[in-house]
Write a structure and sequence with these properties.
Layout: E1 2-4, H1 6-20, E2 27-33, E3 36-42, E4 50-54, E5 57-61, E6 67-71, E7 77-80
Parallel strand pairs: 1-6, 2-5
Antiparallel strand pairs: 2-3, 4-5, 6-7
Length: 96
């Protein structure tokens, strides 16, 4: 599950709006890029993507992207850890 801060929602909506000037079917897709979250343009979700709708914003979220996504004051997407889950971790001592 991904949560978007209001600043991230504004930044992603601005990106989606700008992209739709050139491609009316454009959406933002959040993907994992190492320990970071990256936004790319997509016209449809990839298999396994979650579709997140917040007001006028519809984004696709790739598997493994979780947590809270924020944007810095310039509008750059900045994930708040834990934002990318590559594999579950298990504590060797407590099993948790």
């Amino acid at each position: 599950m991904v949560d978007l801060t209001s600043r991230a929602q504004d930044a992603l909506l601005a990106s989606q709006t700008a992209a739709r000037r050139f491609d009316p079917e454009a959406h933002i897709r959040l993907t994992a890029d190492g320990a970071m979250v990256r936004q790319v343009l997509a016209s449809r979700p990839e298999p396994g993507d979650a579709v997140l709708e917040v007001g006028a914003l519809t984004i696709f979220v790739a598997p493994g992207v979780t947590g809270t996504v924020d944007a810095d004051p310039s509008g750059t997407i900045a994930p708040t850890p834990p934002s990318v889950r590559t594999a579950p971790t298990v504590c060797g001592i407590c099993g948790g």
